[in-house]
Amino acid sequence: MKIILTHDADSIFKPMEHILARRERFTPKDLKAAEKGSLNLYNNIADIVQLEAELGFQSTLFIPPFLFNLYSIVDTLKTIQREGTELQLHYVHEDHPQYKGLFNIQKSFFNELIGDVRGVRCHNLWVTQSLLDLFKEEWVLYDSSYRSETVERMNPYSLDNGLIEIPIGIMDTDLFGRLHLTENEAWKFILKDLDAAKDHRVEYYTLLFHQESFRMKGGRLYSKLLKHLAKEGFECIRCCDVPLVQDALKKV
Question: Which numeric CATH code is attached to 2-250?
Answer without folding.
Answer: 3.20.20.370
